[in-house]
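Supplementary Methods. Inverse-folding protocol.

Structures were first reduced to a discrete structure-token string of length 503. This string, shown here, constituted the complete conditioning input.
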């Protein structure tokens, strides 16, 4: 009955319905066209941004496009969204690796080699997550891409650290052990290979961010490069200290070591607060609001122990009486103790802004121990001054992040400094020549003329002093919220030259 009633009504008002339908149809078409145009515009914007971001990557450009395609259409005009998508892709891969290892360890309880490898890999993968969190915090705390770009030294460091951690995870699994090899292959195929590739892609994007911003028609904010080893004037006060450097730290650096007032003292004879260095490290305040330097004085003596400064123990200053008098020594090794190289270190620093002075770090395993690390360091903005680092093979493991060593004696025979660092490696073939930036500066002597030099794409010939500043230590040590190349080393009180050593 209800259906028939509707038919009768429709007959009675047929003319009105036709008119209304005509109007309604016109409205619907207009709305659909508007939505369609908006969707097309967002898609075009997305394709343009993706093309610009992926243009200079040395990795698979198809993978780059796949990763950036995850950007939501409503965010297609925000350059930050593309970087965020890449970082989230890396984070998903790291999380996948951690989940896989939780499963693997349940089936490998009886194989100590597998257990050690998994424990080591979990440690570095958790560090990778911490680096990615720092990266994401920059994206969240800055409203525009220019603000993000000004912190590119930090972003590049954290991405480089993720790549280092990924490689450390892969390296810790031994191919000779069938169980370890299978786990490594699974981790690589299902997670870590992609983590490495997407990290490199993201690093390429961040490295070329200034050019990307320019090509997008946005204003690029660039900071001048510091010269002559000096900090930019606006970053320091009239006493030569950066604005974030506390007055207590200024007093600390102004005093001779013998006048320092340590928080705790380590002494083997019991005359201090602790007899072992690790106990002193463990005394680091648990309060999250702790500020300033935590000073540990280690009296003269030979301390036979393995020590670790955890990542939360930032701003530790540890000093001894002299590197020939205050000695930390152990003999853990790859062969003698059947340990993974990463786990043999006598001293491990995971904390940021760590400073050591007048101490000796030693692995006494000798030739029979093969790989035996004296010092493994992953602490960002860490510095070692007037220290001895002694071993036989794999003495100093520079694992990740920004580190500085001054007046240090580093001794060993095979690979005694290894790990991750900025530098060059030979590439066979010609495929890499287009990515090289080859310059000459300040040439003198019979071969100073650039006539007859190579004709590679990246060769630029002679450059100016201002251009050459890009290749000085100052650029490699950049970091911090204001990009002061020298600030963290000035804060630590370590002497250095960040520019040219001669005019």
């Amino acid at each position: 009955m209800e259906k028939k009633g509707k038919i009768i009504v429709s007959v009675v008002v047929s003319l009105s319905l036709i008119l209304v339908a005509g109007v309604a149809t016109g409205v619907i078409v207009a709305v659909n066209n508007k939505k369609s145009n908006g969707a097309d515009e967002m898609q075009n914007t997305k394709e343009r941004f993706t093309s610009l971001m992926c243009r200079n990557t040395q990795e698979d450009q198809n993978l780059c496009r796949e990763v950036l395609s995850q950007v939501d259409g409503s965010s297609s005009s925000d350059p930050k969204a593309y970087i965020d998508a890449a970082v989230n892709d890396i984070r998903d891969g790291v999380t996948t690796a951690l989940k896989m290892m939780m499963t693997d360890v349940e089936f490998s309880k009886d194989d100590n080699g597998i257990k050690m490898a998994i424990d080591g890999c979990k440690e570095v993968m958790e560090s990778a997550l911490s680096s990615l969190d720092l990266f994401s915090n920059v994206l969240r705390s800055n409203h525009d891409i220019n603000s993000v770009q000004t912190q590119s030294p930090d972003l590049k460091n954290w991405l480089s650290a993720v790549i280092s951690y990924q490689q450390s995870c892969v390296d810790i699994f031994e191919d000779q052990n069938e169980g370890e090899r299978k786990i490594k292959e699974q981790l690589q195929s299902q997670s870590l290979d992609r983590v490495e590739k997407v990290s490199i892609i993201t690093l390429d994007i961040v490295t070329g961010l200034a050019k990307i911003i320019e090509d997008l028609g946005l204003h690029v904010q660039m900071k001048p490069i510091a010269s002559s080893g000096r900090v930019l004037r606006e970053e320091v006060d009239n006493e030569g200290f950066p604005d974030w450097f506390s007055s207590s730290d200024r007093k600390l650096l102004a005093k001779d070591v013998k006048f320092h007032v340590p928080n705790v003292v380590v002494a083997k004879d019991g005359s201090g607060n602790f007899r072992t260095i690790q106990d002193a490290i463990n005394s680091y305040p648990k309060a999250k609001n702790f500020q300033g330097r935590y000073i540990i004085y280690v009296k003269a003596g030979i301390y036979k122990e393995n020590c670790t400064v955890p990542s939360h123990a930032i701003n530790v200053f540890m000093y001894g009486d002299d590197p020939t008098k205050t000695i930390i020594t152990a003999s853990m090794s790859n062969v003698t103790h059947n340990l993974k190289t990463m786990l043999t270190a006598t001293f491990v620093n995971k904390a940021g802004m760590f400073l050591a002075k007048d101490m000796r770090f030693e692995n006494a395993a000798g030739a029979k121990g093969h790989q035996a690390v004296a010092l493994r360091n992953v602490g960002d903005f860490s510095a070692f001054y007037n220290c001895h680092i002694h071993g036989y093979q794999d003495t100093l493991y520079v694992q990740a992040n920004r580190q500085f060593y001054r007046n240090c004696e580093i001794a060993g025979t095979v690979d005694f400094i290894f790990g991750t660092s900025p530098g060059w490696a030979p590439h066979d073939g010609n495929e890499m020549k287009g990515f090289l930036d080859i310059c000459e500066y300040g040439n003198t002597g019979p071969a100073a003329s650039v006539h007859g030099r190579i004709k590679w794409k990246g060769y630029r010939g002679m450059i100016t002093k201002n251009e050459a500043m890009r290749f000085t230590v100052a650029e490699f040590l950049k970091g911090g919220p204001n990009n002061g190349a020298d600030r963290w080393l000035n804060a630590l009180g370590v002497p250095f030259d960040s520019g040219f050593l001669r005019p």
